[in-house]
Design a protein that fits this description.
By secondary structure, the chain is α+β, with helices and mostly antiparallel strands. It has 5 helices and 9 strands; from the N terminus they run αβαβααβββββββα. The chain has a 6-stranded antiparallel beta sheet, covered by helices on one side. A 3-stranded antiparallel beta sheet has the order 6-5-8, with no helix packed on it. Strand 5 and strand 6 form a beta hairpin.
Length: 209
């Protein structure tokens, strides 16, 4: 379902931090099945994948993303060792006006990957920007259209600034992180799980990084 060869061949940018953008990361002949099995999410916010009703093709995609073959490709791309580093997957179906604020991701994350599942994207808002600083959303080095099959991957650092103009509506994405240890994973899963519970009750009232 994922094109590891294309991933390995794609250039890694280093300015102002290590990142890569890869349209077509998901194989074309698998897209229909993956889209069909994307979980139904009605609220804004990030939800742990294992709390959602994912179809078999989407589950298979998750398994491949967390598999050893892809991990080895990521290690080679970013020149690091992820042995023993757990993965964490969350899924979004919608964003609201509180999403997209400039941030760098927490220091407990090592690698962040976003894969998008939106069949068309005509909006100027909702396009993730990779920034030169944490001050100006218009001072960006790359802008990523959240169209289906596109991958954004970056190594978390103190200057891995990113954000997007607020967009209210359906915006489907999967986020894969390698994190420092199992304690971090458990804490983050609990945080996302509690947040998801209250979003279902009251809607999304606050930004979640």
């Amino acid at each position: 379902m994922i094109d590891i060869d294309k991933f390995s061949a794609t250039k890694l940018n280093s300015d102002p931090f290590e990142f890569m953008v890869l349209p077509g990361f998901l194989k074309t002949d698998k897209l229909a099945d993956i889209v069909r099995d994307f979980p139904s999410i009605k609220q804004a916010g990030s939800f742990p994948a294992d709390t959602l009703n994912c179809g078999p093709a989407f589950i298979k995609l998750i398994q491949q993303l967390e598999g050893d073959e892809f991990r080895h490709a990521v290690e080679q791309k970013f020149k690091l060792d992820l042995t023993g580093r757990p993965t964490m997957i969350t899924v979004r179906g919608h964003t609201d006006e509180t999403d997209g604020r400039i941030h760098t991701d927490s220091k407990t994350k090592i690698i962040t990957m976003l894969i998008y599942f939106n069949e068309t994207w005509h909006e100027s808002a909702g396009r993730l920007r990779l920034l030169r600083s944490g001050e100006d959303l218009d001072d960006f080095v790359a802008e990523v259209e959240p169209s289906i099959g596109t991958l954004l991957a970056f190594k978390r650092s103190d200057n891995s600034w990113h954000g997007h103009k607020p967009f209210v509506g359906e915006r489907k994405a999967l986020q894969l992180n390698w994190v420092l240890d199992e304690q971090v994973k458990r804490r983050e899963q609990k945080r996302h799980g509690v947040s998801a519970f209250f979003k279902k009750l009251f809607g999304n009232k606050e930004y979640n990084g």
